[in-house]
Amino acid sequence: MHSLKSLIREGEHQQQDFKFRIDDSKKIARTLAAFANTDGGRLLIGVKDNGKITGVDPTEEIHMIEAAADMYCKPKLEFKSQIWQEDMKLVLEITIEKNVNRPVMAPDEEGKWKAYVRRKDHTLLANKILLNVWKIERFDQKRPEKIGEEETNLLGIIAQNPLITLSKIYRLSGLEKSHIDRLLPLFICWDLISMEMNENGTFYKVKEE
Prior knowledge:
Layout: H1 4-9, E1 16-19, H2 25-37, E2 41-45, H3 58-71, E3 80-86, E4 89-96, E5 105-107, E6 113-119, E7 122-125, H4 128-139, H5 149-160, H6 166-173, H7 177-189, E8 193-198, E9 201-206
């Protein structure tokens, strides 16, 4: 059985985020959507980034979460809540499960609906390649026994340029961008390449056998 202090000792990571309090339902909806689009996760509300427990009024905070999950996530998200008490202070834990039917969308700062993912302790915008990966996953498209010359050449370019960006793939391949946008998600689903996302960008590399 976890205790609040044991959870806090884990720090912020891909499946856990600390919030001092919730001031903006639209903004926190991006974190909820990112958890749902990745591996699920939990919010500990009433905890500073450094792990210090400040406490909150759970009733006020849960209203903000309900608005985020119901109004600012598409599709609407279900969540579980738990209240922890530590040294006379209350912390609200919100748990989001991984969503089977990705993507879950949330509005960006301009109000446009976007998909987000969680990478380590960052909430990042999902790119078009990942969106296409999710589409392919729904149909469980199998890897062919043999791939063509264009596909082999594209894999060769990625192999020669470890952690290559999409713009560089466009530049080096000579293929139509739309064709690359179709092939890369297939390569990811076929376990031929990996896509690494972090706060500095998105990079691709060939997987070792």
